Amino acid sequence: MDSSEQAVRAAAAEAWALMRAIGELTREGEGITRAAFGAGEQVAAEQVAAFIRAKGLALETDAFGNMHVLLPGQQPELPAIAAGSHLDSVPQGGNFDGLAGVVAALAVLVAVRDSGARPRRSLRAIILRGEESPWFGTAYIGSRLMLGRSTMAEIGGLVRFDSGQTLAQHLAGLGFADAARQSRPVFGPRDLAAFFELHIEQGPLLEGQGIPIGVATGLRGNVRFPEARCFGEYGHASAVPRAHRRDAVVALSELVLAFDAFWAGRVAQGDDNFVYTVGKVATDPAQHAMTKVPGEVRFSFNFGATVEATLTEARALLERSVREIEQRRGVRFELGTEVGTPPVAVDEALMGMIEASAAAHGLGSLRLPTVGHDTAMFALSGIPAAMVMVRNAHGSHNPRESMEEADFTAGVITLAGAMERAANAG
Ligand SMILES: [Zn+2]
Hints:
Structural class: alpha+beta
Shape: elongated
Strand order of the largest sheet: 3-4-6-5-7-18-8-17
Strand content: 15-25%
Oligomer: single chain
Number of strands: 18
Largest sheet: 8 strands, mixed
Radius of gyration: 24 Å
Helix content: 25-40%
Bound molecules: zinc ion
């Protein structure tokens, strides 16, 4: 073990202890609750700020309550290499989603400082607020405001579901009454040459394959129809012959299976970028009966991919399938309003640095797609970005979310090596 890995291990141990302490302070019953721009998130912010000061690092806070730490490089005029994640959690979530990436970024800065290394570019830790969407009905609030992708005029009036107060009121309550006056982005591509986010995987792949580190290949975008319907005709379950039926449930089932076959085909080709879910299905309780042919079914339809071309293909499949099923079964689909987000590409060069860093420390890594994170806001702002995923059991957004300390340490070691590579690269 070289001296710098020793410094990273020591800092990772302190970061782990900080994360555990914040978890205890923000536990509510079974789970962890750190409300966006609210009490739990503020507790975490105060603990993190105290850690930063105790480590002798300079803390800055922007107009939206995001926190920043700068470790100047040999050429501080160059765009910096940043890492970070978010402080908030979903209601009754786990301790690691977001917070692991926050304390990992701090650990890297502490370790680089303590090891005496002085990379060419400056390093930054960026500690974000308000990433989780349940609170204000929209995600990435802290990073969006910080990067100028949304303004307070646009989103300051959003109301938090539990408090009934607006985002502007919550910010003012935390002492950030001037948020609306911040007229330009805090950071842009001229300030940051790279953004890395360490994050728990939230899925079963790393755990299943016994690999501690994942390298995100892209952030899935999605196409969603929250309120779709299929209309058929109600009829007598025992009396209407098959050829005369306009069965809405059978029609929907065909659509569901057509998409499942499309997905299976992708997987068979070794392509893991597509996902698809029909999470809500309901016949009308006022009209349905075991003895009636169903005349209507409501459903949600939701597919995602890291590549736009796959979403385009899936959309074409949806249109084709709907037309065919309508003709064959005498039903009518109304998909309703389409909502969604575009997929976001991560930076290939940074992905390579993450893989090289893991390999240099004897750590296995696996390329895998991931979902939306703050990283998306950086990438969409023209800042090259990539993600280090850390193995975790039991998924995420639930109290059973878990992480082994050894895996966290492996993640910090990987992140540190990737940031130093980026900081010293041409
Ligand atoms: Zn997260």
